[in-house]
Amino acid sequence: MKAGTDHLTSQIISTYSVGATVQIVLDRLFAKIRSEEYPLNARLPSERALASEMGVARNTVREALDVLEARNVIKRRPGSGSFVTYRSEDEVPEREESSVALETSPLDHLVVRGILEPEMIRLAVINMTPREIWDLEQLMSKIEGVHTDVAAFVKCEEEIYRKIAEGTHNPLLASCYNLAIEACRVSFRTTLLRRHLSPKRILEYQQRYNALFNAIASRDVERAVEFIKLHLVEEQKLFLQN
Hints:
Layout: H1 3-12, H2 20-34, H3 47-54, H4 58-70, E1 74-77, E2 81-84, H5 96-102, H6 106-127, H7 130-144, H8 150-167, H9 171-185, H10 188-196, H11 199-217, H12 221-240
Antiparallel strand pairs: 1-2
Helix pairs in contact: 2-4, 3-4, 5-9, 6-8, 6-9, 6-12, 7-8, 7-11, 8-9, 11-12
């Protein structure tokens, strides 16, 4: 195996963000993909089948697939399954920022959010154009339509935060926050949300985001920043409970 491939492998199956059992599943799945037992475009067995084959719980397999998808090794297609997209390091060059995301611990992620989000919200309130606020309103309507689908809810959340980051009109800040979103995908939060994002909690989050949007739309900087600080406190509580 090429040294470069060894390096890529170590990044994809990094132990920074997953538990030991998930790590074992990652190792085995990626080995099968790299050896082309599951070649490019092949459909992986179902979560149930993989869990049975490896003697682990389905949520363990799901966490491993989350990491593989975040690293562009597989692609999930709703209703169809998971398909191999991995080629080789030469064909799909490793992005340095992806490596950083994988090496970011849960605590690191929360600290960075605490630094970025208040200032991001402040600048967005000041700088968002009427059209950008209208676009954000459409995303808020979209997330309000999600009641039980955790994956769909998380995707809507990402779209909302990206739109707010773009609304700062600060490309560097928006780029930094995009990296924070990528780190979030491969960090603890995906697992926590699958465990705790019940329909009731989804409703609570929707109410929070509605309050945030109202503060942004009314150009109330102080209220918007205070909201995001309180929201981050709730996120930290959720982390500390686990």
